[in-house]
Design brief:
about 120 residues, alpha+beta, GMP Synthetase, Chain A, domain 3, three-stranded mixed β-sheet, 3 helices, 3 strands, globular
Length: about 120
């Protein structure tokens, strides 16, 4: 499935300008909120199909993702632990296939959630 980003942005902007969201939102939130949901859904499907392998008795979970920039496309994954380079490449390849970025350099970086202090 290829997402038509510009059409989604126009549709969302028109809905926001007509007040169909039911709540006030900033222009950025109205334009990019649905896009973030698309990225998050795609990542959820990728991870559900092929979860990160267990290493050292622990399996890091990818909590959510967002697209940080567009030129080049950069995705930031937020995880509960260290994500190995091989799995990062796998996710990068799947995102490239999912959103039609064939031939486009994309960046995937991972931020690890810090341990909570008790």
């Amino acid at each position: 499935m290829r997402a038509d980003v510009s059409a989604l942005r126009r549709e969302t902007h028109l809905a926001a300008s007509r007040g169909e969201h039911g709540q006030a939102c900033s222009r950025r939130a109205c334009l990019f909120g649905p896009l973030q949901e698309v990225v998050h859904e795609a990542l959820g499907e990728i991870v559900a199909a092929h979860p990160h392998p267990v290493r050292g008795g622990k399996q890091p979970r990818i909590l959510f993702a967002t697209q940080a920039s567009t030129r080049p496309p950069r995705f930031v994954l937020f995880a509960s632990g260290f994500v190995e380079a091989g799995y990062r490449r796998f996710v990068e390849r799947k995102l490239r296939e999912r959103f039609g970025f064939e031939g486009t350099p994309i960046e995937v970086s991972v931020r690890v959630r810090e341990k909570r202090k008790r």
